[in-house]
Amino acid sequence: MKPFLTLLLVVLGAGAAAAADPEELITAPNAILCMSADSLGTATTTPVAKSQVVLRAMGCLRSEAGVRTRIVRNTPDGAWQVRFYPQGISGGVMLWGRPEAFTAPDGSRPSPVKGT
Fold it and tell me: Residue 55: which of 29, 47, 79 has the closest Cα?
């Protein structure tokens, strides 16, 4: 019975992984995310991106790698609005980021988002 249950769990797990939503991403190392898309241009410049104090004052943050996100929409200038799911906030927070701030769960670069 145990081998059957193990096999069943493996098959169901593989099916879930194959059905993963392409809009589910994780943050790349040192991802810059902001409350406003307008802040991204300044926030991603090197001097600003290095200062957590300046980022915070702008309504932005520098995230660690591996935080789950979900793409909500994109803009013509390439910014993505995402729902960011840091530990302890199950409903997530709406933020903006550039595509380079995210990776697919397997580490690959995310596919371009169709206009949403």
Answer: 47
Closest to 25 measured CA to CA, from 60, 66, 80, 74: 66
The pTM score is: 0.76
For residue 50 the two structure tokens come to 């290095």
pLDDT at residue 103 tops 50: yes
Helix (H, G, I), strand (E, B) or coil at 100: helix
What is the maximum span of the chain, computed from C-alpha positions, in angstroms? 60
Q: What are phi and psi of 20, to 5 degrees?
A: -60, 140
CA 1 to chain centroid, in Å, comes to 40
pLDDT in tens, 32-50: 999 999 999 999 999 999 9
Check if CATH label 2.30.30 holds for domain 23-103: yes
Rounded-to-integer distance, Cα 116 and Cα 13, Å: 29
In angstroms, the CA 42 to CA 72 distance is: 22
Residue with tokens 């926030």: 43
Higher pLDDT, 115 or 66: 66
